Predict the 3D structure of the following.
Amino acid sequence: MIIKLTERGDIADLQDVLKGTALFPSEMLPDLVAGFLSGHGSDKLWLTCEIDGNAVGFCYAAPEELTQGTWNMRAIAVLPVLQGTGCGTAIIATLEAELRERGQRILIADTSGTEAFSQTRAFYRKTGYTEEARIRDFWGKGDDKVVFWKSLEAT
């Protein structure tokens, strides 16, 4: 398993990850990652998990505007057949290490409060995140926004 910066050649495999997870429409991926791949002023960070030469997972993080050292992990996804094998944990660990190297303070992750996302919330807790906030009916009626938080500073 290799965690690396996302490359143009990863896009097709990552679109398959998106099709398998339904995180967001896979057709959106090329446009979302374009700024990062071009290297022209993008402060966003895309990481890919690769196994045997195939991209099997990714995460996308960006700094929160108007904050000092706060980043938001906006997306993380792993092929469903590989969930629970450590890919997601490795991706997050690499992201956290990269952000620490850059002197960043906090990483947050937003998710849904519905039953369908209970495994996602359990994953964040398992990787050391604290449920910091819940905004009722944020995504839709009965679908709360749950914000997870983790300090990147040495304790």
